[in-house]
């Protein structure tokens, strides 16, 4: 358990808070490990009827820690990558998951929403999938789930350009349920969690399993991971990570394609 993930359990609701606001809740390997442990153990805990995911500070999460990406690109990454366990746990979870998103949700911050069952956005929420800008490929089965959800051309645009999707557009496209009034995000999310926690949990869990095919999701995640790993060590990705560290724009035209 890391201090950068806070957990609070009350009234059947397990609230998971990303708590690394000084780094915009960028997710580290250790944080993924804790998140995976929480979601896995919730699956076998009948006292937990709903999971509620939120982030401290001015944004939900800036996605994967780019410093850790850079370490992996130069072969210095962790021996065990917990992100896979986290993603598999998300795909397999039969507990309803609610997400409350303010500010930016970058990379996995957006793709994890495709595994949530009810998504609330603050008016300033922006969903961003900059995988191509980082010379990577989409993960979390989003290469399959996003086109399925919003159509191929819109998903291509989000992935290829990496430009933010604003909150009303995310609702219009079916990625989120509602935009909350200013300052109401956490209260609204809590109220929705209470409503869902009051429903018959066995029925919800059976319904969720029918609605999501965990096996297909995990298979897609595994194909993406293989490609992602390959891309991480590409010259293009090294240029993208160096540019982030040096706070400059990447110059891909100088880098050979492979
Ligand atoms: N990984 C590691 N550190 C990150 C981070 C990330 N994904 N996102 C932000 N941070 C750090 C910054 O390096 C900075 O650290 P510093 O104070 O030690 O310099 C701190 O968080 C604040 O970020 P900053 O960039 O100053 O905030 P901002 O509000 O101007 O911009 C973002 C926020 C999210 C737009 C910008 O930080 C960003 O683009 N981050 C990278 C997002 C990304 O590509 N994620 C991977 C997706 S696959």
TrEMBL record:
Swiss-Prot/TrEMBL keywords: Coiled coil, Isomerase, Peroxisome
Organism for this UniProt entry: Paraburkholderia hiiakae
Full protein name: 1,2-epoxyphenylacetyl-CoA isomerase
Enzyme Commission number(s): 5.3.3.18
Coiled-coil residue windows: 207-238
Localization of this protein: Peroxisome
Gene Ontology molecular function, alphabetical: isomerase activity
Pfam family, one: ECH_1
Entries under InterPro entries matching the protein: ClpP/crotonase-like_dom_sf, ECH/Chromodomain_protein, Enoyl-CoA_hydra/iso
Gene coding for it: paaG_2
